[in-house]
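Justification of resources, computational component.

The compute hours requested in this renewal are based largely on the per-chain cost of generating structure records like the one below. Each record pairs the submitted sequence with a full structure-token output. That output is archived, and it is also reused by downstream analysis tasks.
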Amino acid sequence: MTYELLTALMAFAFVSSITPGPNNLMLMASGANFGFRRTIPHMLGVGLGFVVMVLLVGAGLVQVFDAYPVSHLILKVGSVAYLLFLAWKIATAAPISDAERAGHPMTFLQAAAFQWVNPKAWTMALTAVTVYTPDTTFAAIALVGCVFGAINLPAVSSWTLLGQQMARVLTNRWRLTLFNWTMAVLLVASLYPVLFP
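The structure output for this chain reads:
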């Protein structure tokens, strides 16, 4: 991979990882509701789950979509349904005092599995593999995965920190409820490019 292509890949990885999307909005909500420390497994699941996704997409999952176009539609419908469910869970999350007793942030495995129904993650992975790999060797695909692994985790962590800082403002039930509903609406709005390409 040339220096120019690597630089472009790093820029793409940063911009696509730091901009709002389902992962970042859920991490911000988790940071506000559960704090940074309890959200670490969620962050690691996002970062490492996406790297695995890039590797598997690069290894040939794209060919499955080409051979069986209905599989792409099935994934799209499942993604939308799951994101609507997550939006509802965010909107109805309990305040931190109640959440400490009854609620749980997303686990590592849940966050890693979520990448497979996250429309933004699919767009990022497909773009990274098709645009930024000069060839389809495992080394080229692994490099793309490593670049995303190095850039994605700090980027998504910043959203958790932002959410944790927001918790200082969200000191009563009304403000927290308003914040959670806003995050849920933004999460649903992130489906717009998927539903209306």
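The chain has one domain: 3-190. The CA atoms of residues 65 and 72 lie 6 Å apart.
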